[in-house]
């Protein structure tokens, strides 16, 4: 790349003269012929002044990542961690400055929200929280949640289709007593409870098949500890289902541990299917059959949607549904 020294040499003038002419210094007195020679030298060498270079540099975008979990909650359930990683990796590739704000930090970060070009919100939010975010920017993409598809962009998965595939698989293996272990989530300052769409789909399936039993549903938190406790509860109750759908691999890990301690073999005695396909699922004993959710891809997709909003001024909202895959390993068995 040509330097100011190269221009001055070609135009046969001093560095100071070349600099002042190219920067349109009104106080310099030089002949028009000299100015012409300097500008011609700069053109031939494709030299740009600092001002010209800065003018052509595109402003670096600043996005905010709003997490509905605290850092402690994220450690317990890696599902949202991998979504966050996808967002962070894509922003790094796109040279986008990213500010990550966890739920427990949100009230202390309000001064930073106003300088951001848009937000990616991971998780579930109340109507009041969605409204508060919209006060800072209309450029918002939600991941794993779609508060209003006529207004906001969102990236979600098709829970109904995923659950239909899971339940049909277990049913076709001969299971007629299928249990459900899941977690309870709440949103907003009022702690309003959200019903898991997986639980809704599960209940619809077993009712349609005439095998519904409310006693086979166990609800706690999305943590390994609760998976363990809930399975212990099911074992103590007796008449254990021959198969369980567990709404997260983390919970499934705890559930399998509880079965092992009671000398109940997976899959010989009880079949287990998890959800998410976390990195450790294939290393469990036995390797866990589960629903693979492309969490990092969800994060990357959200960044692309937000870029469309900010750079292309897209106004029509998009709702992107990411497909899932049922991963068959060794934790389920045909019976009957």
From TrEMBL:
Alphabetized Pfam families for the sequence = LacI, Peripla_BP_3
Which controlled-vocabulary keywords does the entry list? DNA-binding, Transcription, Transcription regulation
Return the SUPFAM superfamilies for the record: lambda repressor-like DNA-binding domains, Periplasmic binding protein-like I
Q: Which InterPro entries match?
A: HTH_LacI, LacI/GalR-like_sensor, Lambda_DNA-bd_dom_sf, Peripla_BP_I
Kindly list the GO molecular function terms attached to this UniProt entry. DNA-binding transcription factor activity; transcription cis-regulatory region binding
Residue ranges of the HTH lacI-type domain? 2-48
Do the record's keywords include Cell inner membrane?
no
Tell me if NAD is a UniProt keyword of this record: no
Identification of the protein by name: Transcriptional regulator, LacI family
Record organism: Caminicella sporogenes DSM 14501
């Amino acid at each position: 790349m040509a330097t100011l020294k190269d221009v001055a040499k070609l135009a046969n003038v001093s560095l100071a003269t070349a600099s002042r002419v190219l920067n349109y210094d009104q106080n310099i007195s030089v002949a028009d012929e000299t100015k012409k020679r300097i500008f011609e030298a700069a053109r031939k060498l494709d030299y740009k002044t600092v001002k010209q270079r800065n003018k052509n540099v595109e402003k670096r975008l600043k996005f905010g990542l709003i997490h509905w979990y605290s850092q402690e909650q994220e450690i317990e359930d890696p599902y949202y961690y991998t979504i966050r990683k996808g967002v962070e990796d894509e922003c790094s590739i796109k040279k986008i400055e990213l500010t990550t704000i966890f739920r427990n930090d949100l009230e202390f970060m309000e001064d930073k929200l106003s300088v951001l070009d848009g937000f990616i919100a991971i998780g579930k939010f109340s109507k009041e929280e969605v409204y508060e975010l919209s006060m800072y920017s209309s450029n918002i993409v939600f991941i794993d949640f779609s508060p209003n598809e006529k207004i906001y962009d969102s990236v979600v998965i098709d829970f109904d289709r995923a659950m239909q595939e899971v339940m049909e698989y277990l049913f076709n293996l001969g299971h007629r007593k299928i249990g459900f272990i899941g977690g309870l989530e709440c949103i907003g300052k009022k702690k309003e409870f959200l019903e898991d769409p997986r639980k809704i789909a599960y209940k619809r399936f077993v009712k349609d098949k005439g095998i519904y039993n409310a006693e086979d549903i166990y609800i706690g938190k999305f943590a390994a500890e609760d998976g363990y406790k809930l399975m212990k509860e099911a074992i103590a109750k007796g008449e254990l289902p021959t198969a369980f759908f567990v709404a997260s691999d983390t919970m499934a890990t705890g559930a399998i541990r509880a079965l092992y301690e009671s000398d109940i073999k997976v899959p010989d005695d009880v079949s287990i299917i998890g959800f998410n396909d976390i990195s450790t699922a294939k290393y469990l004993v036995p390797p866990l059959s589960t629903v693979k959710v492309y969490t990092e891809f969800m994060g990357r997709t959200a960044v692309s949607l937000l870029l469309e909003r900010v750079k292309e001024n897209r106004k029509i909202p998009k709702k992107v549904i990411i497909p899932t895959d049922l991963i068959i390993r060794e934790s389920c068995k045909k019976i009957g």
